[in-house]
Amino acid sequence: MGICWSVRIKAVSPSHTSATASVGVNAKFVSKDFDLSGSTGSVPPTPRSEGEILQSSNLKSFNFSDLKSATRNFRPDSVLGEGGFGSVFKGWIDEHAFTAAKPGTGLVIAVKRLNQEGLQGHREWLAEINYLGQFQHPNLVKLIGYCLEEEHRLLVYEFMPRGSLENHLFRRGSYFQPLSWKLRMRVALGAAKGLAFLHNAATQVIYRDFKTSNILIDSSYNAKLSDFGLAKDGPVGDKSHVSTRVMGTYGYAAPEYLATGHLTARSDVYSFGVVLLEMLSGRRALDKNRPNGEHNLVEWAKPCLGSKRKIFRVLDARIEGQYSLGEALKAADLALQCLSVEAKLRPIMDKVVATLEQLQDSKEVTRSSHNERNVNRPIRSSTGPKYRRRNAIEPSSGKAASYPRPSASPLYE
Ligand SMILES: Nc1ncnc2c1ncn2[C@@H]1O[C@H](COP(=O)(O)OP(=O)(O)O)[C@@H](O)[C@H]1O
Ligand SMILES: [Mg+2]
């Protein structure tokens, strides 16, 4: 069709400048959304103006100097994580005055400071305020406030003590122990509830960047969605989809969205399927460090997901013995449905939630008692799987840095 997806103006994040062919692009670019139906008109990020969004939200407006002190001048050793749009720092504020507090006192916060190069960051910053300023839900991270001062754009969230799901699944090291099967199912359910809530909102919201680094975990292993920078209002009236420039993260975006730019809630369901598969397998959606034929998790795993015989090739060896064959097949079948190429065949998120509810306290297997410390050791229960995985343990380098971390960006064909 000869559609020009976008104008690449500038890579925003200097730490993510290496674009890697088909396996991942670690850059975000300054560009405008394109209305593909008209091919030229740009779509505003939200139907409300910036003034309306900032006024209507119940968020606290912070001074830059307070956030600077709260994070001890954005100390490098207080970085909680980095995304394509900026770094996130740990900080402390007085919970009543909202001024900086001594480290270890008052309210712990996470402060996202957007990279200051270009306007794209501003758009995402505003989208987060628009959505997280309106919604409160146990499975959405709480946005406390923002800072808009000269060129500074910051967001202040509740601190999530257990960090992101990405860290729990893929980081190696003593701090992040692999999550047990039970906790994986718990986190999957929480994240599914967050998406279901957005899809069921009066004006439907499509999250558009569902991936493990955007799922945060609190002290009780409740999952909360964060990073609403790419969220978008769903179609209204008799429209079946919204037309957008293709944004998101390689490995997670639904095939029809990649091909057409037509965005629906079912695109999120596909991404949910990818994340569920990452949770079941302990493998990243895209991993070029794997042997040939295993780079793309969905392509590699799909043929095994419905098979009693092959399913154990896919399942994470680190949680072997913690589930029954029935549970594994049920979860794998759910992932398979979410990953249907035909969007209409994917379940709606309410259905996903219902299935995951059933998987929470299944009594099918007498699980070996385990805790977060010993899940590294394969445990075999008498009713557990009878098959040995071929690739039982991934080569562990002891560091996560070797893998190019996927970040959201415009996606190109
Ligand atoms: N509220 C928070 N509490 C703890 N860690 C957080 C919080 N928000 C973000 N992080 C960490 O920072 C990383 C990047 O945050 P994110 O909001 O996804 O940024 P970006 O919009 O740049 O992708 C997350 O993957 C997580 O590890
Ligand atoms: Mg992110």
UniProtKB/TrEMBL annotation:
<feature type="domain" description="Protein kinase">
    <location>
        <begin position="74"/>
        <end position="359"/>
    </location>
</feature>
<keyword id="KW-0067">ATP-binding</keyword>
<keyword id="KW-0611">Plant defense</keyword>
<dbReference type="Pfam" id="PF07714">
    <property type="entry name" value="PK_Tyr_Ser-Thr"/>
</dbReference>
<feature type="binding site">
    <location>
        <position position="112"/>
    </location>
    <ligand>
        <name>ATP</name>
    </ligand>
</feature>
<dbReference type="InterPro" id="IPR011009">
    <property type="entry name" value="Kinase-like_dom_sf"/>
</dbReference>
<dbReference type="InterPro" id="IPR001245">
    <property type="entry name" value="Ser-Thr/Tyr_kinase_cat_dom"/>
</dbReference>
<dbReference type="InterPro" id="IPR000719">
    <property type="entry name" value="Prot_kinase_dom"/>
</dbReference>
<dbReference type="InterPro" id="IPR008271">
    <property type="entry name" value="Ser/Thr_kinase_AS"/>
</dbReference>
<keyword id="KW-0547">Nucleotide-binding</keyword>
<dbReference type="GO" id="GO:0006952">
    <property type="term" value="P:defense response"/>
</dbReference>
<keyword id="KW-0418">Kinase</keyword>
<keyword id="KW-0723">Serine/threonine-protein kinase</keyword>
<dbReference type="GO" id="GO:0005524">
    <property type="term" value="F:ATP binding"/>
</dbReference>
<comment type="similarity">
    <text>Belongs to the protein kinase superfamily.</text>
</comment>
<protein>
    <recommendedName>
        <fullName>non-specific serine/threonine protein kinase</fullName>
        <ecNumber>2.7.11.1</ecNumber>
    </recommendedName>
</protein>
<dbReference type="InterPro" id="IPR050823">
    <property type="entry name" value="Plant_Ser_Thr_Prot_Kinase"/>
</dbReference>
<feature type="compositionally biased region" description="Basic and acidic residues">
    <location>
        <begin position="362"/>
        <end position="375"/>
    </location>
</feature>
<keyword id="KW-0808">Transferase</keyword>
<dbReference type="InterPro" id="IPR017441">
    <property type="entry name" value="Protein_kinase_ATP_BS"/>
</dbReference>
<dbReference type="GO" id="GO:0004674">
    <property type="term" value="F:protein serine/threonine kinase activity"/>
</dbReference>
<feature type="region of interest" description="Disordered">
    <location>
        <begin position="362"/>
        <end position="413"/>
    </location>
</feature>
